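Objective 1b. Sequence-to-structure analysis of Integration host factor subunit beta.
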Amino acid sequence: MQKQDVSLAVDIMLDAMSKALIEERRIELRGFGSFSVRSRKPRSTKNPRTGKIMEIPDRKTLHFTMSKSLKEALISETE
């Protein structure tokens, strides 16, 4: 395959993944892992520098869970 063809394929795949995550759909890549969007509740925290209480609004975060086969491969690599 030519470099430009591979680049186009990767761009198409990443664009499709981004659109799915924006729509809050779960993405699974067999043998690698899954991506999902999670909501975090609003909370209060203290600024360590100023000591002032800050309000953090609710937000969405990206969550990745690696597949069992990837986890096993990483563990066996370190042993």
